[in-house]
Every structure is written in structure tokens, then in C-alpha cells.
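User: Sequence in, structure out. Go.
Assistant: Echoing your sequence, followed by the C-alpha cells.
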Amino acid sequence: MSNSMFYTGLSGLNAAQAALVTTGHNTANVNTPGYSRQTAQISASGGSNIPGVGFFGNGAKVTDVSRSYDQYLTSQLNQAQSTNQSLTTYGAQISQIDNLLANQTAGLAPQMQTLFTHVQAVANTPADPSARQQLIGSSQALANQFRTMDQYLTGLNASVNGQVSGMADQINTYAGQIASLNKQVAMFGNASGMQAPNDLLDQREQLVSDLSKLVGTKVVVQDGGQFNVFIGNGQTLVLGGKATMLAAVNSASDPNRTTLAAINPAGKAVQLQEGMITGGALGGLLQFRSETLTAAQNSLGRIAISLSETFNTQQRAGFDLNGASGKNFFSQASPAVLSNATNSQAAPVGALTASFANIGKLTTSDYRVDATGPSAYTVTRLSDNAPVTADSTGAYDGLTLNFSGGVAGDSFLLQPTRAGARDLAVVLIDPAEVAAAGSPFTSTTGGVSDGSNALLLGALQNKKTMAGGTASFNDAYAQLVSTVGNKARQVQISNTAQSSLTLQIRTAQQSVSGVNQDEETANLLMFQQMYQANAKVIQTASTMFDAVLGIR
């Protein structure tokens, strides 16, 4: 009986030691990111039947070291923080444009007001060379402001490109580490008789959590406990022990944009559709670029093109101080056509060209032109993915397209207004060439000394020359400022709500998996007492055994 008592005490001692080690491990990792609290599962070792007496217990045993983990809460948390990070990134980017456009001193609105104030001054004193010089000076300042703002937006696009490249590398790093841990989990799980390698599982979960902050992530657990990881709207990233590598590449449709491609088994980069990449900082960046950055740059370009066109038209209708017909005042951009990098080699250079047919009908969208045959094509407005048909004049949203032949399947990106702000400049330098007069005849009431054409130039400030005759320059700019500002506030409000939701889910998840230092301290004392009590049992058994040996 003393021998049985000895082994019973020894089993309790081992169980207490395992519980103490596990509790100490919890305490050491109280601040380790992604660590899940572990618990030594202790059960009775069963009993031995002694005939005529009954069953006597054989002590305790540790059956498992379990991990406090809730897959549902963890999945919820990953999804919530992915959305949170997407909104945070979007908000940080759009706030830069919002601050640029809404600046009361450096924005376009003050510069346009100054321009038309000086136009009015010329109308009042058309023969005054200083008034004419001030008009040219304010025009140059306005053109410079257009170009400066366009450069800023172009710089934002370059910044997005750089961040996309950096995030692709980070995603590859996480994917490789998750695949490696998948192999280790499978190996150690099999070697230990399906005993879960808890710390490896925590490391893998933390990698998935970090990955979800970069891009939306979905995890499917396969047999053997390995993770299959998908990003965005279903792109495979990790399958068991294999990881798909991503690469940052120039977009096939627009080489000025960096996008993602998946490297297939043959080593070829297959470009992913940007619509598939959602969630996380990467999804937020791509969404910002497609929804806000492109539209803002196109909107500025449209205002610049409309200003140039209408001002030049009215300037040419007048006469300068020399009695000559007016010349163009501003330079003007032309629509850009980009051939898709995947087009057939048979597509001729310049297969598609575009020109302005009606400036007043221009939108702020880009367009995709798809060849359906040697001389046939379809046009899609990318802002709403709506098909566009030609109007009675043969124009598409104010654009004339010249398609000289292509191959079915070829695609072209049409950017009507992208370069509008970049290419705006004052080409009229001589103040005497400002066509302020409405008539070439000289007199005290008309001719080169009158300001009737300057009055018409000034009237352009409030004339509805844009958006199909529904908006003036100031209206279009105010609409741009309002659209960006409203979107910025919407993202901010959504992000605040999402941050609160993420915190709530994290709190719930930590209530299950997190380490409570007070609880672990109490457990240490409890298991310490358990250890001491079982040591006393062994000591007692030893004393009893010695007493038996001492019987003579």
C-alpha cells in the first residue's frame, strides 16, 4: 500500500509540476502578441481493484496542454481589423487631397477669382498696359497652381505605387512563413500523436493576423490542421506548405500604375484584377487610387481644359491693341490613349486616337475601348462601368474616336482629361495681344480701345460651360472640393465606428485567449500548494515504508 501511495504521490507531483510549468509559460508570455493562454489538463489515472477491498485510485496524469482559442472570434477579429486598416489607410490618403483642395489661400478658387478680377480691370481700362500685364500675371499664377496641384496628385500616385511594391514584399514574407509553419505543425502533430504544438499555432495565427492588416484574408483549415489562406476575393496565397508569390508590376492598361501579379508555377507573372484585392492597407490604397485620386486628377484636368477652350475661343473672337484678331491665350492638353500591354502584335501603332468634340460634355472618367473586330469597338466608362454609345454627332461623352483598325480582344485606355492641369500654360506673353476689343475699328466708343470682348471674357466666370451646360468653372471646382470632403468625412466616420467594433471584438477574443496576470498568480499559488502536498504524500509513503522495514 505504501508503494502504491508513493506512485500516487509521484503522479500528483508530476501533474503539479506540469501545471506550474504551463502557468509559468503563461506568465512569461503575458505581453507576447498573439499568444493564447495554455492550460494543463489533469485527469485521474484510474484505479486498481484490490479483491475484497475495492478500487483504490492511482493518482493523476496530464492528458493535454490545451490552448484557449476561439476560431470564430479570431476570424471575426481578423476581418474587423482588415476593414479597419483599409479605412485608416484610405482616410490618411484622401485627407491629403482634401487639405490641398480646400486650402483657402493655396487652392484654385482664389486664383480663378483673381484672374477674372483682372479680366474685369482690362474691360474697364482696355488701353492700360499695366491692367493687361496684371491679367497675364494672374493667368500664369493660375496655370502654375493647376500644374502644382497636378504634380502633387502625381506624387501621391507615385507614393501609392511605392507602397504597393512594399506591401507585396511583406505579403510574400508572411505567406512564406505561414507555409513553413504549416509544415512544422503537420510534422510535430504527427510526431506527438496529434498533440497540438500550441506555440507554433499561435505564431501562425499571429502571422495571419498581421497579414489581414495588409490585405483581406480568409483561412480554411484543412485536414492535419494546415491553413489554406486566400486573400481579397479568393486569390490563393497559401495551400498547405506551398506559398504563391506576388509581384508588383506595371499595370498592363496603365504603366503609370503599379499593381499586383501572382507568379504561376511556370514563373510567369499573371496580373490580378484590382477589384479582387480588398481589405487591409493594400485594399485601402487601391480603392483610394481608383475612387478618389484618379477622379480628382481628372476633375482638375477637365476644369483646366474647359477654361483653356472657352477662354481661347472668346479671345480669338476679339481684337488686340494692334487691331489683329486674338490668338490663343492658354495651351490645351489632348486626350491620351494607352494601348494595353497584352494587345496583339498585329495592333498597329496609333490604332486608336481621340480628340475633343464638345468640351462641355466631358466627364471626369477614364474609358476602356475594346476592339471587337478590325473596324469595330465598344466604349465603357470606367467610373460606373457603363457602356457608352455615340451621340448624333458620332461623339462619345464629348470625344471623337478614330479607330484605324485592330484585332478583336485588343484593349485601349482612354484618359481624356488626365493631363489637362499638367499641360495648362499661358502662351500669350505680349500684353498688347490681349484681345479686349470686340471690333477692329478704332474710335472713342469702340474698336481696339473698347473692352467689350474683355467683358465677354469676364462673363465666362459664371457661364455654365461644363457638365453639359450645368456648371461653371467655380461650380465644377466646388463640386470636386465637396465630393472629396464628403468622402473624407464618410471614411473618417466609418473608420471611427469600425475602430470601436474592432476593439469590442478584440476584447471578446482576449477574454478567451488572453493571459490574466492575477489569475495566473493565483494558479501559481494553488499548484505550488498541490506540489508541496504531493511531496508530503511521497514523504509519508517513504516513512511508512521505512517503518515496515524496521519491524523485527
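User: And one key feature?
Assistant: The chain has a mean pLDDT of 91.
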